[in-house]
Amino acid sequence: QAFFCLLFCIPWGSSCPPSCQCTERAGAKAVLCSSRHLEEIPKDIPRDVVFLKLDANSITRIPSNAFGHLSHLEEIDLSRNAIEKIDRAAFKGVAAGLRTLDLSGNRIRSIPKEALLALNAKLRLANNPWHCECALQEVLWEARLDPDSVRDITCHTAPREEYVGKPLLQVLDAGVNFCSVRQRTMDVAMFVTMFGWFAMVIVYVICYVRHNREDACKHGGHLKAAPSAQAHAE
């Protein structure tokens, strides 16, 4: 925060969240809300803010469109919070101009890949209790991660105990592919489902054939009985 205070040392007059400090320098506006005991993202952040500091608070969730009205945002610092949930559309509206997004030091176990892969921003995701899975692997390979922090993305939990406590990058470099594991699981589930439907069709066909045979036997019995009854009547 001291760096931001030095960089943006001139207060600006437009509306500012009551728990934050708003400054401006060379036309770039910053909202500094570090260590303010915030439990959610302030609703009244000025629309023309460029730098937003929300670090060292108690924010637990980033809801959909949390920054959608802040089209000038270039940097968001959400590090050292208690974030556990990030909605799929959390960063909708800021994808084009955002350059840096810091989510390090939170409680994030998993994240919808759609929330991050649309961003061009440099991401910091270190020091979270990650569950190593396919979505996180895709984020690692496809998103723009800060190279200085990528090795601190560690598997807090994983499908296999041997991966726990290891950096995700190290696990993947060893040849592990979490997405192929998920694909195999889906293939097995699809096979079981198809087998179940096939078995139901077979049972239905057998019952149908048996039912028709029983009806045919009954019909044949009636036909045999009819001439005998007619002859007896004569």
Structure explained in plain terms:
The chain is α/β, with parallel strands linked by helices and 234 residues long. It folds into 2 domains: 156 residues, Ribonuclease Inhibitor (Leucine-rich repeat, LRR (right-handed beta-alpha superhelix), Alpha-Beta Horseshoe), CATH 3.80.10; 33 residues. Helix content is 35%, strand content 14%. It is built from 5 helices and 11 strands. The longest helix has 56 residues. The termini are far apart.
Question: What can be said about this structure in brief?
Answer:
By secondary structure, the protein is an alpha/beta fold. The protein is built from five helices and eleven strands.
Task: Give short descriptive properties of this protein.
single chain, 234 residues, alpha/beta, Leucine-rich repeat, LRR (right-handed beta-alpha superhelix), 2 domains, two-stranded parallel ribbon, 5 helices, 11 strands, disordered N terminus, transmembrane
Write the SSE topology:
Layout: H1 2-7, E1 10-11, E2 21-25, E3 28-32, E4 51-53, E5 61-62, E6 75-77, E7 85-86, E8 100-102, H2 113-117, E9 122-124, E10 130-131, H3 134-142, E11 155-157, H4 168-173, H5 178-233
Parallel strand pairs: 3-4, 4-6, 5-7, 6-8, 8-9, 10-11
Antiparallel strand pairs: 1-2, 2-3
Helix pairs in contact: 3-5
Organism: Erpornis zantholeuca
Membrane topology: Single-pass membrane protein
Transmembrane segments: 188-209
Please indicate the count of domains.
2
Give me the CATH architecture of the largest domain, please: Alpha-Beta Horseshoe
* Low-pLDDT segments, ≥5 res: 1-13, 182-192
Specify the helix fraction band.
25-40%
Mean pLDDT: 83
Q: Can you tell me the overall shape?
A: elongated
Sheet with most strands: strand arrangement: 1-2-3-4-6-8-9
Distance between the termini: 115 Å
Q: How much strand content do the residues show?
A: 5-15%
Main pleated-sheet profile: 7 strands, mixed
The helix-strand sequence is HEEEEEEEEHEEHEHH
Q: Report the count of strand segments.
A: 11
Structural class: alpha/beta
Question: Which radius of gyration do the C-alpha atoms yield?
Answer: 32 Å
The CATH C-level name of the largest domain is: Alpha Beta
Question: Number of helical runs?
Answer: 5
